[in-house]
Amino acid sequence: MFTGIVQGIAKVVEIHTAPGLNTLVIELPEDKVHGVTIGASVAINGTCMTVTRQEGQQLYFDAMQETLRLTTLGQLKIGDLVNFERAARIGDEIGGHLLSGHVHTTARLAEIIRTENNVTLWFEVPESWMKYVFPKGFIAINGASLTIGEVEANRFNVYLIPETLRATTFGGIEQGETVNIEVDSQTQTIVDTLARMGYDRPASTV
Asked: A biological process (GO) annotation for this entry (predicted)?
């Protein structure tokens, strides 16, 4: 499990491609690799990955075809920066909301609005996933736990403060980029349960 509190920014230093499998070599900050063991779970842009090898600050992760298809990891290039979070331990503070690291879908950054002290990002999401997106609800974008602002048709926005921009890759994100989305598990459970009972909520058409 993860908390959605990004622990830092890491760099893709190598990508080894094989049929149906990419091995990503990602370099973490020196102070973030202490105690990492083979088999440990690390969220890379919100995707739960297993450490298969370690060389100093460089961790190796195998991304199979299904992961490459469902997430943005297959689009990564050498030199790209990613958000990372090591798996939560019992007793850790849950500063965001509980995440599984299982990406549900991807979204496109449709618009960036920059003001003096914050940034507003508008994302377009496949319509089938909008039933889980509510104003003031939780959502994870590239592994970061964020609060949804406004919801319109097939898109929603989030408001980012300077600290979030500094601590994550959102500080350098560009319009048109694709991000990983994990919807809030409690919201998904409630919506799906109500749907089975016949209380479907149509997607917002505001």
From this structure: riboflavin biosynthetic process
CA distance 106 to 126: 8
Q: What is the pTM of this model?
A: 0.91
What percent of the residues of the chain are helix, what percent strand, and what percent coil, each to the nearest 5? 20, 40, 40
Q: CB under 8 Å to 42, separation ≥6 — which residues?
A: 36, 48, 49, 51, 59, 61, 84, 85, 86, 87
Average pLDDT score, the chain: 93
Q: Are residues 79 and 109 in the same domain?
A: no
Residue found by looking up tokens 């900050």 in the block = 29
Could you list the mean pLDDT of each consecutive 10-residue stretch along the chain, which spans 206 residues? 94 95 97 94 98 97 96 97 89 73 97 93 97 96 97 97 95 97 93 88 52
- The domain tally of the chain equals 2
What one-character DSSP code corresponds to residue 117?
S
pLDDT of 144-194, one tens digit each? 999 999 999 999 999 999 999 999 999 999 999 999 999 999 999 999 999
How many whole angstroms separate alpha carbon 112 and alpha carbon 149?
Answer: 14
Q: Does one domain contain both 116 and 78?
A: no
